[in-house]
Design goal:
The chain has about 280 residues and is mainly β. The chain is about 10% helix and about 35% strand.
Length: about 280
């Protein structure tokens, strides 16, 4: 573990602890906390740091994508850093990594291939933080909503005549190894991380990733059902799940919403129930 990651892990645990212990609302429910800082493990990039009940998100301020997503034990499930040429080992990772060479490249933590966006905090309460990013050419807009139990990304404005996808490119449990696994709305079975899934997920469209050494899973859900492919393939150092993606083809053309968060269980039924609760809210 690098010194930077050790520092971030310690700070993240402190932030989550303070948020849970000191920032709960009067009903006793966990709250949302927004601070400003840098993501040292991502190369010192400036970030909005949003803490919820069981996670801390680092939302990179210039690129408009997540650079780190840290669980309550201090483990980062994204592992992005901006070193040029690091490829699957760093610079490609993140979420949603949505706009790639479609009237620019946007909503990815800032790397050599990302175009900049501007951002504005529109809501900042102890139950809801909203941050909106607008591409520098004004053609794309992405909306981030953080709640006590999850994070939502909405592609709220789509460049006319262009397409996008929404991707999780990361490291379940902190690194890609043979202990990682997945299941999804098409299969209740635990699949080794290197198993591919090719095709359209059945409604509701969702995926969950786990690590045999961890007591939790990361779920990702697409709120709108469609008939587009939702392919998953593994790379040597990261996952590549793409809602609306097949190989290098993009299929999404309208505003869509995607949620992600941690479930403190590895049981299919409990993960599925969490997904359904998310979609009902």
């Amino acid at each position: 573990m690098t010194v930077y990651r050790m520092i971030k892990t310690t700070l993240t645990l402190l932030v989550v602890s303070v948020s849970i212990a000191g920032c709960a609302n009067q009903s006793g429910q966990a709250s949302v906390s927004l601070t400003h800082g840098v993501d040292e493990s991502a190369g010192g990039l400036p970030a909005y740091i949003v803490s919820i009940r069981n996670a801390t998100f680092y939302l990179e301020k210039t690129g408009g994508g997540l650079s780190s997503m840290v669980d309550k034990d201090g483990i980062d499930w994204l592992g992005f850093h901006d070193e040029k040429g690091s490829g699957w080992q760093g610079e490609y990772r993140g979420f949603p990594n949505a706009v790639h060479k479609q009237a620019g490249s946007y909503f990815h933590a800032m790397n050599a291939g990302t175009d900049p966006s501007t951002s504005q905090v529109e809501i900042n309460t102890d139950q809801h933080v909203r941050i909106v990013f607008t591409s520098d050419n004004g053609k794309w807009q992405g909306q981030w909503d953080f709640y006590p139990d999850r994070c939502d990304f909405t592609m709220s404005q789509v460049s006319l005549g262009h397409r996008y996808w929404v991707q999780y490119e990361g490291v379940p449990g902190g690194s890609m190894d043979d202990s990682d696994f997945w299941f999804n709305s098409a299969s209740r079975n635990k699949h080794p991380i290197n198993d591919a899934y090719i095709g359209d997920l059945p409604a509701p469209e969702w995926y969950a990733f786990g690590d045999a050494k961890q007591p939790r899973m990361l779920y990702l859900v697409h709120h709108e059902d469609d008939e587009h492919p939702d392919d998953y393939v593994s790379r040597p150092y990261m996952t590549v799940l793409g809602f609306g993606r097949h190989e290098k083809s993009k299929f999404l053309t309208t505003p869509q919403t995607f949620s992600l968060g941690f479930v403190e269980s590895v049981d299919y039924g409990e993960v599925e129930a969490s997904v359904k609760r998310t979609l009902s809210q």
